Amino acid sequence: MSHDPRFFAFLKERIGLDVASVGEAIIERAVRQRSQAVNAQTAGDYWLHLQSSVDEQQALIEAVIVPETWFFRYPESFATLARLAKARLSEIKQMRALRILSLPCSTGEEPYSIAMALLDAGLAPHQFKVQGMDVSPLSVERARHAVYGKNSFRGADIGFRDRHFTEYGDGYHLADRVREQVRLQVGNLLDPALLANEPSYDFVFCRNLLIYFDQPTQKQVFDVLKGLTHVDGVLFIGPAEGSLLGRHGMRSIGVPQSFAFSRHAEPAQPEPVFKPMPAPLPQRSTAPIAPKPRPFTSASAQVVPIKASPSDAGDLLSQIATLANEGKSAEARAACERYLSSHPPAAQVFYWLGLLSDVAGSALEAQGYYRKALYLEPQHPQALMHLAALLESQGDSAGARRLQARAARSERADSESKR
């Protein structure tokens, strides 16, 4: 009963969500859950209830939004922020506090990471303030509560937890000195009056959001973000979103793994914004790493892998994901190479290589890896969506739409097979 375009249109209007970016099945499942919760017997019944209840409208949005975040996700972004913040304070001669915006702030891990990073870097509390904003009142309330479980602490370096949290029976409680640096509120990026009376921000974090919008909505949201960011400010985005900014007058500041962009004084170029970074990524791993990602050739495809147990393969795939999510691209790429040298080719490995190449600014190389992943697994959802975003940034809207439609069909089929 939930396959009804009215619900897709509602979410598009309210939060800008492009159904193709997440798949129809996710929205359909949320509609079914909410229909059952309010005892609606048909899609029409639930639609009428939705139109008459502001609370239910928000409940449906909450059912679709699934926060996936943790403290210090993409660590280099926060290290870069700390360096830039000190320089910015010097530029403005410390005449005012730095203004930093995090949206969507989800359950608070990002804005609190910003505050912890700046405090740990030696900034005094009066030198900066962080504004966190999210469309979800439930997420904002959880952020205000500031009590977190172990899933919010990932990666090898969690020393900040000892400095800024106290463990109790219900989880880890954030210290008041960090909470006091962050102001949280509910807000919608599609609201034209969003923060209209507020001064611009020195730094804006808006990560992993643009990829869920269609191209017109991306432009609309980007215009809002650009207006919120000071002319000399910096915008931090997600790893897969950099290629979307080149057409809108932004360029990478050139710090590997920071995903940080500033305004470009020159006219925007039609090519993807990612350019080769001026400095190589640090290599902390002892494993040998080729100077360039290994191109996929017919010769490399014929290499006979050495024998390895399935558990070894699973452990290595998990290691690749962990390293990539922590922003350790050199180590993640080395782990991919180790996998391909000892196991049969796997779509997930080529997907990670594609994402790592995308982040490094090698758009064409990334496209090749994504396509290899789809050759091995035609309905690989992440490869479909990231390749779609890449094609969109290159002006191939038709190709992007085709891939988004494939991803939506795959999600729907997967959902139906689990019923």
UniProtKB/TrEMBL annotation:
Domain CheR-type methyltransferase: from-to ranges: 1-241
GO MF annotations, alphabetized: methyltransferase activity
PANTHER family in alphabetical order: CHEMOTAXIS PROTEIN METHYLTRANSFERASE
Region (Disordered): 400-419
GO biological process: methylation
TPR repeats: 347-380
Compositional bias segments (type: Basic and acidic residues): 408-419
Pfam families: CheR
Keywords tagged on the record: Methyltransferase, S-adenosyl-L-methionine, TPR repeat, Transferase
Entry protein name: CheR family methyltransferase
